[in-house]
Amino acid sequence: MPTPAPADQALQEARAAWPSVTLDGKAFKARWSSLLDPDDPEAPAPLGPDLYLAMACLANDAPAQAELRKMIVGQLQQLAHFRFSREDQEELAQHTLTALLVGGAKGKKLAQYAARGPIQGWLRVLLTRAALDRVQRNRAAPPADEEVLLGLPGPDRDAELESLKAKYKGQFSEVFRFAIQSLTPRQRNLLRQHYLDDLSLEELGALYQVHRATAARWLLEARQQVMTTTRDEIGRRTGIPRMEVDSLMRVVQSRLDLSAGFFLTPPKGAEPK
To answer: pLDDT of 143-170, one tens digit each?
Structure first.
């Protein structure tokens, strides 16, 4: 029996390692072959099973993405020395998945994986960098800006609104931040991914493996909870009459896109790398 070609052998090994994962064989062999070093025939070949899994994740194969999630959770457990809360770990895992599978201006991070080393170690490096960034952000959180929520003062602004802003200065930004922090990790991630990462409903649905309508409903629920918590908490803390609260909340609601983006933005100089 003839010996299979190296790319064919790599495909066989990959499929044996991940029997539940589906990926086009031709695409895999083309990618695997492109990663060989033509100038150094003695150089190690790409790790077939790890490359196969990464490519299947990028092709939106559900079993592959489930395996990737498990790997990320496992690697986070190796970073126990950071002493993150459970919520921090969940957010860190979701941020990493977003970078890997959705990406930003530089594309999907997982597409950069060349299978030179085990994917587990590659993920550990990404998560360690993200963990260090989070520690820096927590140490250098900037003060909230009241004007982001209620707008800049000006001669054409409503005099009553300006009076209320002056009277309760500092309260709204504090309460709005509290409202965002009271969300579940998934709700905060949805707001961050929608307002900061500029993900569409279709992209959110693909990321969370749900229908577009479900992603839209989740996003609406997160927005509504922020507004409800802000309204209830500002009334409880300040004793502002309900009519005055509602008047201010109409302004806040009209600026929710900008407000959520501001309060979810990492401090200047601490952007993820």
So the answer is: 344 444 444 344 444 555 566 656 666 6
Q: What Cα–Cα distance (Å) separates residue 192 from each residue in 94, 223, 225?
A: 11, 12, 15
Q: Left if phi > 0, otherwise alpha if psi is -120 to 50, otherwise beta: which for 269? A: left
Q: How many other C-beta atoms are found inside a 10 Å radius of the C-beta of residue 70?
A: 10
Identity of the amino acid at 218: W
Can you read off the two tokens belonging to residue 209?
């493996």
Q: How far is residue 216's CA from residue 203's CA, in Å, rounded to a whole number?
A: 11
Distance spanning both ends of the chain, measured CA to CA: 50
pLDDT digits (tens, 9 = 90+) for 257-270: 545 555 665 444 33
Greatest extent of the chain over all pairs of C-alpha atoms, in Å: 88
* Distance, CA of 155 to CA of 202 (rounded, Å): 42
0.70 exceeded by pTM: no
The number of residues in the chain equals: 273
- For 84-122, give one letter per residue: b (16+ CB within 10 A) or e: beeebbbbbbbbbbbbbbbbeeeebbbeebebeeebeeb
Helix axes 185-195, 212-238, angle to 10 degrees: 110
CA proximity to 100, closest of 133, 64, 134, 49? 64
CB atoms within 10 A of CB 176: 27
